[in-house]
Amino acid sequence: MCVNKLILGDNLEILKAMDSETVDLIYLDPPFFSNRNYEVIWGDEGEIRSFQDRWSGGIDQYIAWLKERVVEMHRLLKPTGSIFLHCDWHADAYIRVDILDRIFGQHKLINQIAWCYTSAANTKHRLPQKHDTIFWYAKEDNYTVNIDEIRIPYNTKTEANYKEGLKGSGTFYDGKIKSDEGILNEKGKVPEDWWSDIAIAARYPKNSPNNIGYPTQKPEALLERIIKCASNEVDLVLDPFVGGGTTVAVADKLKRKWIGIDQSVAAVKVTDLRLRRQHDIFSQPYELKLRKYDYNTVRNQDAFEFEAWIIKQFGGTPNITQRNDLGIDGKAAGGAPIQVKRSDSVPRDVIDRFLSAVQRYDKRLFEKNRAAGKPAGHIIAFSFGKGAVAEAARLKNKEGIIIDLKKVNDIIDYGSGPKVLITSKELEDYKYLLEASAESDSGIEFYSWDFDHNPEEGFKADIVIDKDGKQVKKFEPGEHSIAVEAVDREGLEGAGELTLKVKATE
């Protein structure tokens, strides 16, 4: 049963459905109140709709939109939890006064962090605005904090700065700094509330594996500092605006549990690809929750995993033991037994055996449900044969026993991923044009490429976002396995593979 979740949907509705005081750390980087069209990054329907909602009433609408979400985040935080809210100068004053101070209280502000960076600027009438604000608020006074985990190692620059700052009150010797309070911590200095040592992610080279093509991507070093500072291993980290996925990718590396939410299909799928790219034998499993699920993935997953997963989707509790369970795989919210059949056209004899198991499982509950006209049990399958349907109807009409036959597509919405075709064309020696095409009723959102595909390791994207499905690339002589994935606007994916044989020239 996966704790880690990557969820496509409206974060407000998802947050409302989560249990109170279950989250240790929240980092959110909501869309800034910048009134610029570049704020629409992915360009899919979910993001555009959210953009329009935030802007319909100016700053008041934006603050109201964000505030109702932060109210839910405050409820979700454990007493030891913290929130880090990332914003810029357009709305930072409003966010602090009208949202965070009102919800958490002024005295719960731990730090107002300035993340300082440099980049090209062409301003003639004012100074370039080159910092973001990160508000750190705690829920209660006994919040988690690990200052020693984020100390900055001494180097020539920091030693010189410390030496300058300690003139008159301390000395510098033998590679260490001594003040009136003694030798400073050998692990390094504690970062102040202005961070100028972490470059913006836009500085990642285009071909860097850290660059996922997301224009407002935050660097992993920034999230590493926040997560190490305000959480411990196995703590739960939540990012309700997952964007390019930096928070959950770093949380996963740092052995934290995590939940990431976004209403953009592209954001969720790019994050999924990013997690798969860093996946190894030590990585934690996670659940990808889309509005629509891929039929083949659902149908072909491990039988026990499918049972537990579909029962949870139904709102029930799966049977963990899987032994001496009388064929009962879980129970519904009211306690009625559930049986799962990962098959089609379930026959009548399944009904007979299940009814017998239900009566033996809990005779009192069976009679209680029968008297109340409630289901005595539920069978979940992909489809049911005529015999099973007829027998369920007979039991209900003649004996007052309700066996609820629930098809999988009554519980979840599923479909088929795109069909993908990949071709190659030699342009010159060692240089090839690779083209991918895909078909989907909902339309294709983007393509991703794996130029050194290993089926045993799974798809590891070298190019995460390709809107056109075309790549020009040089290859060394030899045989190359190339894979491409197409993601449609429902978040479903399809894959194609190609073996490219490159001959050495004379």
Question: Could you walk me through the main structural features you see in this protein, from its secondary elements to its overall organization?
Answer:
This protein is α/β, with parallel strands linked by helices and 506 residues long. The chain has four domains: 4-151 and 192-289, Vaccinia Virus protein VP39 (Rossmann fold, 3-Layer(aba) Sandwich), CATH 3.40.50.150; 155-189, no CATH class; 297-411, 3-Layer(aba) Sandwich (Dna-directed Rna Polymerases I, Ii, And Iii 27 Kd Polypeptide, Chain: A, domain 1); 417-502, Sandwich (Immunoglobulin-like). The protein is built from 14 helices and 26 strands. It has helices at 11-17, 45-55, 58-76, 92-104, 156-165, 220-230, 246-253, 265-277, 295-300, 303-313, 348-361, 363-372, 386-399, 408-411; strands at residues 4-8, 23-28, 77-87, 109-116, 131-138, 170-173, 176-179, 182-183, 194-195, 236-239, 257-262, 286-289, 293-294, 317-318, 330-331, 337-341, 375-381, 402-407, 414-415, 419-428, 431-439, 444-450, 463-466, 470-474, 478-488, 493-502. The strands form six sheets. The chain has a nine-stranded mixed β-sheet with strand order 9-4-5-3-2-10-11-1-12, sandwiched between helices. It has a five-stranded mixed β-sheet with strand order 14-15-16-17-18, with helices on both faces. It has a four-stranded antiparallel β-sheet with strand order 23-22-25-26, covered by helices on one side. The protein is globular. Mean pLDDT is 87; it is low at 162-175.
